[in-house]
Specification:
This protein is of the alpha+beta class.
Length: 802
Amino acid sequence: MSRRLCSAALVGIALAVPSHAAATTRADYVHPLAGTRPGANTFGGGHNFPGAALPFGMVQFSPDTSPAERHSGGYDFRDSHISGFSLTHLSGAGCALYGDFPFLPTIERIHGSPTPHGAAGLASKFQPGFSHSEEAASPGYYTVRLNPGQRRRQIDVELTATTRTGMAAFKFPRTRRASVLINAGGSARADNQSAVRIDPAAREITGSASSGYFCAQRPRYTVYFAARFSRPFSGFGTWRQQALSPASTSASDDKPPSVVPSNTTQAGAYSTFNARHERTVKVRVGISFVSVDGAKANLAAEAPGFGFRRIRSKARGRWNRALGSIKVSGGQRRDTATFYTALYHTLLAPRTFNDVDGRYIGMDGQLHSTGGGTKYADFSGWDVYRSEIPLLALLMPSRASEMVRSLLTDAAQSGCLPRWPYANGQSMTMVGDPSDPIIASAAAFGASDFDVGAALGAMVKGATQTCRSPNNLYVERQGLDQYQALGYVPWDLDTKTRNANSLFGSPDSVWASAATTLEYQTADFAIAQFAARFAHDPATYSKFIERSGNWRKLFNPASGFIEPRYANGSFVPGYDDLNGGGFAEGDAVQYTWMVPHDPAGLASMIGGPTAAAGRLDRFLRVLNSASGGTDSDHALLGNEPTLNTPWLFDWFGEPFETQAAVRRAILQLYGPYPTGYPGNDDLGELSSWYVFGALGIYPEIPGTGVLALSSPLFPHARLRIGRSTVRIDARGATPATRFIRGLRLNGHRIDQPWTTYCTLARGARLRFALGRRPKRSWGAAAAAQPPSYGPDRPMPASACAN
């Protein structure tokens, strides 16, 4: 690593905002280290990873650190040692997963097995220290100096990536024992199988691992790798558990899959190089979820040579094109960096899952082919339906359509639409039926290149029949029979305690009955909108728009909050709205606002728009309370259930309060530094929320193209939507000018705090006039309020009907 690079890393971390005098591309503004450390008043920290990846890539080549507890990103900014550079990660999820095949350069003598007894990771002597002052990351690239301050032990590491491959360059000190360890049993969660094979003549090491158990869910996956080195080996060997085998060319370890894995397999390989004269060793590695041959084919297709700079340059070019889907200008440097960092994180997931030849392993365990296009995996369903999927559909409709087709393929292979799928397995993580609003929202924002009939059929099936995957470990809608009979999931079914078989309840139990009801009615509303707008099916619309009003059955007029209810119709006596249970990562006070399709109906239950606005103002006075969190009477904007709340003032006749709340949230809770995320990014959901907030638009109502409006943060923004361009100009925009004084759409003055996707998709220009003081009359008239949708609402005539 050069002195210049070390200096740049120091500036980038210490000040969080680079000097952009030399910045010429959007990638220069991105800080991959943002969200790698919990900050004050955050819900668990961002859990992002800083390593090299491409948009939606299969490979995320990134460092894993210790001694902090492993999570989905694998990296914690508070840590001081690196345990390896693994090839797969999740961006921002709250539970650990992947972290497969950590590579680690070392100059330690390898006299015994590198893994201590009973541990998945390497022994402490093989975990070098590092300093953030000698570390840097940018889109598609990561570099760090290991053992800083120890001149004769320093190892410089550089990583870059293609979609399905990674490349590392290790620069060793002058030594005869420069080695690279590959810990095939070192995944973030316990491996029940790991294997390696060495071909010294080909300078190649291959292997496999089987892992899983994300958030205590049972689905497991198998992944394969093929690594080729730039130089011949001077030595090599393998290990299995505590046995080291120098000159061995293979090792494997297997354990039966466990419901609650407490140990892991231990198999790995090492290769040694003479670095006395030539100090740099490069390795290029492909992965596949199909086979070792698939990994080799991916490697041959995407990284046929050892041109590190070429691959890094192409990765940067890919990122600049992707980030160029939105161009903001005129804002402050910190805000521009925060914006493109958020957009970057939005584009990391879901994951490309098929090999270059189109092959992948389906949810039925069989080999399939895409026949062209991309198969995607890893959908953080409970999270991303809210704003990430609408943003991806808006900016990349073809890719978002492929994502919907992937979900429909999962349903065809397993019998059910997924909730939180990873790799090729069905997970019941969190609650609800999020594939329905994912599909409907994708279509509403322009991503409708999929089989509408098949989509509606899968949605209706999951909403009307108890859908189980073949192994009975996944149920699409738990408590469905009671929900259909009563209009809500009763408190009688609520497990109240987390089942040993699953962090979020077993297939035949319900966790968080009230939250589940609200999620089901949101999904039902999405089905109704999709049936009307795209399938033109009035019967299905009528059935599900009626069900979308089920939230009213949990509204307790005695307390004024949505609360759990028994099957006999009574509410829970003495219920505590902050600590009473029945909600997923939240409480009754927070969840009562989660009626995104009918804010007007909710306001009427609370006592009218004025009363609702007053309560909402009190709710948003404190953001992310350190003392309350998920048991608070204030908003937790680092978690999904209250992400919609700042925009509700647009429905309550006080849009200036939305403008104030959104601006306060994006300025206070986000930034381009390690503590700059208010909670788990959840595969890009919080990042997408910030992007929309900074643009001044938000997809409040799942399954429709309605966009609530707020004040843009930047004087100028350009969005590429299909073949059209949307221009958002905000005269006088600064962090302090947060209030809309006037708005023109295509030259015409408008006085309403909302618009639609269809209005923008034809090409549009929004011209805001902003000021420091609110104009309370703007958008406040009852006739100006955005639409609310209840059972008495007529069926939309088309996709673009409001």
